[in-house]
Amino acid sequence: MVYGFSVVFLVVFYRNHSAFDLLFWILFGVFFLILYAGVLFMQFNYFMSAHLRMKSKEVLLTFDDGPDPITTPKILDILKKHDIKAVFFVIGNKAQAQPELIQQMVAEGHVIGNHTQKHPPLFALMSGKNVKKEIEDTNQTLEKIIGKGTTLFRPPVGYTNPIIARVVKKLNIQTIGWSARSYDSFITKPHWLLKRLLKITQPGSIVLMHDNRTHTAAILDDYLNKAQQNGIIFAKQATLNAFIHEINA
Ligand SMILES: [Zn+2]
User: Fold this and answer.
1) If you measure from the C-alpha of residue 65 to the centroid of ligand 1, how many angstroms do you get, rounded to a whole number?
2) Quick one: which of 41, 110, 113, 147 has the fewest CB in 10 Å?
3) 0.90 exceeded by the pTM?
4) Distance, CA 120 to ligand 1 centroid (Å)?
5) Residue 114 is inside which H or E element, if any?
6) How many whole angstroms separate alpha carbon 245 and alpha carbon 249?
7) Which candidate, 178, 60, 57, places its Cα nearest to that of 110?
8) 195 CA → ligand 1 middle, Å
């Protein structure tokens, strides 16, 4: 059916456009498929086995793209108030700029994950050598700040492909995905974001948020209060430690 439509589309397109146009759009389509298919495939564990859910009923909060000098301290304060522990997938360059926030995260019982040194927008198109460098540079940055790297990795935007999978295997690190994506990069209205988070948070979820977003920091306290009223249990120190131990075993 899909192939049939594609053939009809190509014939009609070809009659109205030049072969060059056709080639352009095919290449354009292939480019986007390569770029985004891996993101979808992460959820199906197609290229590599990412950890997408907790085995226990507790919910694990994860924050990407920080640390941010304005919003990360607010998020840390709220987590402290609720005694909830999270994983922060930090960008190496930002960690370098805000080392005291990385130290604070660790001192307060959170876990640091590797989200590459520069968060390259075309990470899925990089060579194995450069993928490896992005991950290793981040761990070297972390070593300078907290004395050790991390075995937890989340690729930018959740890109996966066979090259990234091979590097991850070689470096013996664990890829952490998510089961509940807040889309807080797109949903900027605090009320809508809160509504979405409450809807997607289920027992055992790994929740993906960003600690460099003002609206995420703004609704976090409300979210934690309301979700806990709904019976959701967020990971505390023992759960987080057990999770880390289990995936590295
Ligand atoms: Zn990111």
Assistant:
1) 5
2) 147
3) no
4) 9
5) strand 111-114
6) 6
7) 60
8) 22
Q: Could you tell me the two tokens for 72?
A: 């990360």
Report the alpha-carbon distance of residue 80 to residue 83 in Å, rounded.
Answer: 5
Catalytic annotation, residues: 64, 210
Question: For residues 238 and 244, is the Cβ–Cβ distance under 8 A?
Answer: no
**pLDDT tens digits for range 190-243:** 999 999 999 999 999 999 999 999 999 999 999 999 999 999 999 999 999 999
Measured in Å, residue 8 CA sits from the centre of ligand 1 at 39
Tokens, residue 168: 């991850």
| Chain centroid offset of residue 15 CA | 43
Q: What is the pLDDT of residues 86-135, one digit of tens each?
A: 999 999 999 999 999 999 999 999 999 999 999 999 898 999 999 999 99
Torsion of Cα atoms, 121 then 123 then 125 then 129, to 10° = 140
Half-sphere exposure of residue 212, counting CA atoms within 13 Å on the CB side? 15
- Other C-beta atoms within 10 Å of 204: how many? 16
* CA–CA gap between residue 23 and residue 142 (Å, rounded): 45
Asked whether 131 and 167 are in contact (CB, 8 A), the reply is yes
List alpha helices for 116-189, DSSP H: 128-146, 162-171
